[in-house]
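Support request, please re-run this one:
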Amino acid sequence: MNPIKLVGIILIVLGGLGLAYGGFSYTKETTGVKLGPIELKVQEKETVNVPLILSAGAIALGVFMLVAGRK
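Re-run finished. Output below.
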């Protein structure tokens, strides 16, 4: 399998996941207060939204790369 087809498949999968979930979230740990040897850690949940047009564009580009990779 050539690299163009592989990248095309990866783009299609990532675009499909972006359409299905609409985004992803992760937890970021920061230091809230530090008083000498005592630290207070705070966990913040961050959410990243994936725009619909970006997901659709990734799928379209992936399909194009698969079709172009055949020739």
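Strands lie at 23-35, 38-49. The two ends are 13 Å apart (CA to CA).
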